[in-house]
């Protein structure tokens, strides 16, 4: 069956800043009532809070057959992911990468650079269309299916997020660029 995951990825935070900004984002989500802390097996789980509906598009949520009434609270959970990570939607057909300099789609994408970025945290990619290079973290993918970063707010089994929610979280993180990566695992 799988789990539907959405991750709001901070594209600007460094490895050294990830824990601090992760805590800042989680505390903001708690203070806004989007999540709530619940003791769980000697640790803390972060589940949907009393104002979770403000973050999501409930009417379009049709892939959780168990939710029949929009008043019902989903069993969604938040995980703050820190460390160098390739955030990716569910596996599927390869999609074009989009050059951040000229907006040209690159069918094969910067595949070689992904391994370099994962190993070193840095990779520049030359665009075959315009000939200019750009950091891998600046590239986009069709359907926002991939992002590279050191911090992600992974929401498991939540309805689709409202764009304004991701923008509000972006502002809470100090105006950092964010990308929402979504799919089923």
Q: What would you note in describing this structure?
A:
- By secondary structure, the protein is α+β, with helices and mostly antiparallel strands.
- The protein has a domain of 106 residues.
- It has a six-stranded antiparallel β-sheet. Strands 6-5-9 form a three-stranded antiparallel β-sheet, with no helix packed on it. A two-stranded antiparallel ribbon has the order 7-8.
- Strand 7 and strand 8 form a beta hairpin.
- The longest helix has 14 residues.
Spans of at least 5 consecutive residues whose pLDDT stays below 50 are 63-70
Radius of gyration, whole Å = 17 Å
| Helical coverage, percent range | 10-25%
SSE order in H/E notation? EHEEEEEHEEEEHE
The structural class is alpha+beta
- The coarse overall form would be globular
| Share of β-strand residues | 25-35%
Order of strands, main sheet, comes to: 2-3-4-10-1-11
The span between the termini is 9 Å
Q: Can you count the beta strands?
A: 11
Main pleated sheet: 6 strands, antiparallel
Mean pLDDT across the residues is: 87
Contiguous helical run count:
3
